[in-house]
Amino acid sequence: MMNRALVLSMVICVVGTIMASIGTGIPYWIRKVDSNIGLWQICSKVSSDNGAEYVCSSREGKDADWLISVKVLTISGSIFLALSVFFIGLFSKENASSVLIRCAIVMSALGGMALIAAVVVFVVENQDFRADFHASFYLTLISGADGLLASLLMLILIRVPGEYNTI
After folding, report:
1. Domain-located, residue 145
2. What residue ranges in the chain does DSSP mark as E strands?
C-alpha cells in the first residue's frame, strides 16, 4: 500500500504535467482586444462575410532569444514533471530502491523551477502587458508551483520515520 503523501505527490505531478503541457501548447499567454499571443502562434480576430473569426499564424522564424528560452523551459519543466511521476511509480513497487524517490524529488523540483523560471522570463520581457496575461501563463505558473509542492511533500515523506523512511 502506498503512503498518502506519495499518492498526493504523484497526483500533483500528474496535474502539473497536464497543466504545463496545455499551457505550453495553446496560444493564450497574452490576450489583447483583437488577438491572443502564445509561444507558438499569434491569433488575430479578422472580420469576414461570415462574421468575426480568429486566424492564427506561426511565430516560427520570428522568435527572440528570450522566447526560445521560455519555450525550452516550459517543455523541459513538463518533461521533468512527467519523469517525476515515472520515478514515483517505480518507487511504489515492492523492494524499490530509495534512489528512485530521490530522483522523483529532484525531477519534480527541477520541473517546478524550470516552469517558474519560464514565467519569470516571460513577465520580464512583457512588462507592458502586465494586466493582459491569460490562461496559458497562469496554467504554467500553477504547474510550476505544483512541482515544487510535490517535491516538498516527498522530502517530508523521506524525513518522517515510518514505512517509507529511506534515510
Report:
1. yes
2. 30-31, 35-37, 41-48, 51-58
Neighbours of 144 (CB within 10 A): 28
- The side-by-side arrangement of strands in the sheet containing 30-31 is 30-31, 35-37, 41-48, 51-58
Q: Which residue, 160, 109, 161, 151, is CA-closest to 8?
A: 151
Indicate the range of 108-112, 117-121, 153-157 predicted with least confidence: 153-157
Give the torsion sign (CA, 4, 148, 77, 110). Answer: negative
* CATH code of residue 17: 1.20.140.150
Report d(CA 164, CA 167) in Å as an integer.
9
**Helix or strand or coil: residue 30?**
strand
* pLDDT at position 151 over 90: yes
Give the residue numbers spanning the domain of 17.
Answer: 4-30+63-159
In a domain, 101, yes or no: yes
pTM for the model stands at 0.85
* Distance, CA of 86 to CA of 94 (rounded, Å): 15
Q: What is the CA radius of gyration of the chain?
A: 19
In the 8-state DSSP scheme, what is residue 50?
Answer: T
